[in-house]
Amino acid sequence: MKPRLVFVHGIGGPRDAGADLEEWLRALAHGARAAGHSSRLSGLAGGWAADARFAYYGDLFRTPGAQGAGTPSTRRGAGAAPQEDEELVAELVAELLLEAVDERLTDPDLPPGEVRVLRHARTQLAPPGGAQGLGAPGRRAMNALTALLALPGLRATGGWLSARLTVGILGQVARYLNRGEPDERGVTLDRRIRDRVAACLDGDGPTVVVAHSLGTVVALEALHAHDGDVPLLITLGSPLGVRTAVQPRVRPQPLSAPACVGRWLNFWDRDDVIAARPELERFVVPNAASVGPVSSRVDSDGVWVHPAAKYLAQPAVAGPLVEALTAAAAS
């Protein structure tokens, strides 16, 4: 029985799951070649070496009947949180950005121009004297993003298009962790999202899981309820380390490796603002088999390094992934 390869996507707008699966597999193939695994690619691409699945949940963030792209404290629309949740979502987005900026500022090798941009963004997020007012979190977040979009890792090319859209997309992390927005059955948004991932995990035999961005939070929680064999979990550009806006809201607490995971590799890029506090082993408790995250830095080219395909094209990521699939297929 061939193993499953389950991809769990992160933040972003509506997407074509089939097209994304093909893109992620192409990037994986590129990285595998660079890692010296060309001989193993035909099986992966042909579908016999692994049952590749893309756990898609992006449509669940859409608000039925809404038009346009909504963001906290702006206008509501597709992807916007219900009105009663918008203030909390905006506050969590501001917290996420503030911690990411503070973590980045600890780098002693930052060029002066980047330091100036980061300090300006920090002033927008945490105004002197605690000045706030009605709708302040949403305004602070958008003002900060307007400044941060000047940085190479957040420019529009290949990435987010505007500060307003960026705040709305980051708000998806907050909406998931808010544990609200029940449907007509009373099932909350976060549970519906985990159910999508669980459906892809379902089946006999081993499963290799690759999770990106918000998907690392979703996958971690879903795997805690999974009793199958997961020989390898790979997390890419994870916000799990965000101390205030993410880490204490992840379930279960304390933050720990799922019992079903046999190995956990975590990858981060220096220019990925989402991966604040990227060395997850500093605060994630190992499971009973002493398995915990092992973090490694990768460096991608270009002005936007957060996409999953950028990570999967790295030989350091693709190499162990393909090796794990090969070992699972042989077991």
> How confident is the prediction overall: mean pLDDT?
82
Low-pLDDT regions: 64-80, 155-161
Q: State the end-to-end distance.
A: 9 Å
Q: Kindly provide the radius of gyration, computed on alpha-carbon positions and rounded to a whole number of angstroms.
A: 19 Å
Q: Can you characterise this structure?
A:
- The chain is 40% helix and 10% strand.
- The chain is of the alpha/beta class.
- Strands 2-1-3-4-5-6 form a 6-stranded parallel β-sheet, sandwiched between helices.
- The longest helix is centred in the N-terminal third of the chain and has 20 residues, at 86-105.
- The chain is globular and about 60 Å long.
- The chain starts with a strand and ends with a helix.
Write the layout of secondary structure elements.
Blueprint: E1 4-8, H1 17-34, H2 41-46, E2 51-55, H3 86-105, H4 112-125, H5 136-148, H6 163-178, H7 189-201, E3 207-212, H8 214-224, E4 232-236, E5 264-269, E6 293-298, H9 308-312, H10 315-330
Parallel strand pairs: 1-2, 1-3, 3-4, 4-5, 5-6
